[in-house]
Amino acid sequence: MIVELICSTLHFTMGEQPIFTTRAHVFRIDPVSKKNWLPSSKQAVNISYFYDNTKNIYRIISVDGSKAIINSTINPSMSFTKTSQKFGQWSDSKASTVYGLGFSTEAELNKFVEKFNEVKEATKGGPSEKGSGEPPNIVNSHVHHDRTGSGSSNDSSNVVMVTSAAKDSQLKYENDRLKIALAQSSANAKKWELELQTLKNNNARLTTALQESTANVEEWKKQLSAYKEDNARLKKRNSDLETGQGESSLLQDKNDLQQQLQALSLAHKTKEKETHELHLRLEAAAHNQMEQSQLRIMLQNSDSQVGDLETQLAMTTQQLEDEREKNQQKSQDLSSIHNQLADVIKQASTLHQALGEQL
User: Is the pTM of this model over 0.90?
Assistant: First the structure.
């Protein structure tokens, strides 16, 4: 109902006749990347061709709620391109954008392209007699227009009200979008702060463990040195026994020495394994320090983005307030003009009636 009301308002206020209407999803090309499509409507909306018999021009118009999302004047240089079975696009240099339409079926897209080409060909025929009331070869019906002065005043008022509502809606949309982006940036900043604190805690624990492990390594080195001295001493003793004492005593001492050597070898392997594990933990601690530095940089960037978003939000809010004040002033001016026109019409009607009575 809202779309029909606004389209009807455009029709009566701008002298335009509806030619063809269909439904599609509306997109606009990203003005930054010039590659990605940005949705202009959350769902399929009415897309209509209109003919202005006072200016002999054709336009494509679509309104979503109170916001005009398409207002494109067709000229002979334009072309509509089908990029898939259900999607097409055209470029409007006057609006400095590229419009895209997504249809539910290929048949609907083909019908829209057919009408586009018909309208484009009609614009090549040159200007017709102004106010003829009918577009050549396209429009099948005529629309009655009120020619009284009061109707003209209402038409001008409706045009300004529709345009002002569209600007107000756009500013509200930008304001809400900036608020969402600001909230998302704040949430990301808190998340990064939490991760950074977790890394700091892990780094502190690893540093403590590394210090303890370093102290243990020094102790193990001392023990290993003592084991080596004992081994050398035992080897010397074994050599002395082989040369100076009996076989039974020598065999017993050899067995004792071999057991001690095996124990020392096992202890040595255990210490080497523990030393390797300490080196791995040391490398992990260094990696965590690198991640900590990266998170600090990300946090600083997030703080900067939050500041920029807050500035944009303040500017958009101020623009919204300024636009509202302008709209109020325009409404007051239009109301005054309307009253003046009504008085003039009333006087003219009285004068006409008086002249008729005299005659």
Answer: no
